[in-house]
Design brief:
One of its GO terms (molecular function) is GTP binding. Its EC number is 3.5.4.16. Pathway: Cofactor biosynthesis; 7,8-dihydroneopterin triphosphate biosynthesis; 7,8-dihydroneopterin triphosphate from GTP: step 1/1. The structure is a single chain. The longest helix is centred in the C-terminal third of the chain and has 16 residues. Strand 1 and strand 2 form a beta hairpin. The protein is α+β, with helices and mostly antiparallel strands. Helix 1 packs across helix 2 and helix 3 crosses helix 4. The termini are far apart. Strands 3-1-2-4-5 form a 5-stranded mixed beta sheet, sandwiched between helices. The protein is built from 7 helices and 5 strands. It folds into 2 domains: 39 residues, GTP Cyclohydrolase I, Chain A, domain 1 (Orthogonal Bundle); 133 residues, GTP Cyclohydrolase I, domain 2 (2-Layer Sandwich).
Length: 187
């Protein structure tokens, strides 16, 4: 990441909106923004599949695994403002291939840490799990509030966008899909 270029760009933006980048409160802002971008966009050059190590090759568990309410923060690629929410990730292992539960959260985190679309987070997470673990099925549900709808434009705070990606058995088996949705919605 070119932090010096980011610093120059932030200084230019501050000047363009009529601010003085040298005034006391703004002096360090270009550097702070560059360091923040380095942190919040750390997923740009990272493959989310690398987190999906198969820890348990010989387990006989071929029942639902669900990690729900995984918090995430991302940035809308259209407006460069945040959106945030939670992801629910479920899969049914096949052939004893299980990954660590925290690995599912790491996949969400890696995919979210780049300028992004919510729809792309949802499908990328589902596709990564499907490709690496080759499970019977995968469901990923993402719920998020978009600041581009809250603080600008239509100005509707509290509205949530929900996206889903369904793979494998969950596409064909309504009862399996209903079980996942029931568990996600159960508080």
């Amino acid at each position: 990441m070119d932090k010096e270029k980011i610093q120059r760009a932030v200084k230019d933006i501050l000047e363009a909106i009529g601010e003085n980048p040298e005034r006391e409160g703004l002096k360090g802002t270009p550097d702070r923004i560059a360091r923040m971008f380095e942190e919040i966009y750390c997923g740009l050059n990272e493959d989310p599949k690398k987190h999906l190590e198969i820890y348990f090759q010989d387990e006989k568990h071929e029942e639902l695994v669900l990690v729900k309410d995984i918090p995430f923060y991302s940035t809308c690629e259209h407006h460069l403002v945040p959106f945030f929410g939670k992801a629910h990730v479920a899969y049914i292992p096949k052939g004893g291939k299980l990954t660590g539960l925290s690995k599912l959260a790491r996949v969400v985190e890696t995919v979210a840490r780049r300028p992004q679309l919510q729809e792309r987070i949802t499908t990328t997470v589902a596709d990564a799990i499907n490709e690496v673990l080759n499970p019977h099925g995968v469901v990923v549900i993402v719920e998020a509030e978009h600041m581009c709808m809250t603080m600008r434009g239509i100005k509707k705070p509290g509205s949530k966008t929900v996206t889903s990606a369904v793979r494998g058995i969950f596409q064909k088996d309504a009862a399996a899909r209903a079980e996942v949705m029931s568990l996600i919605n159960h508080k």
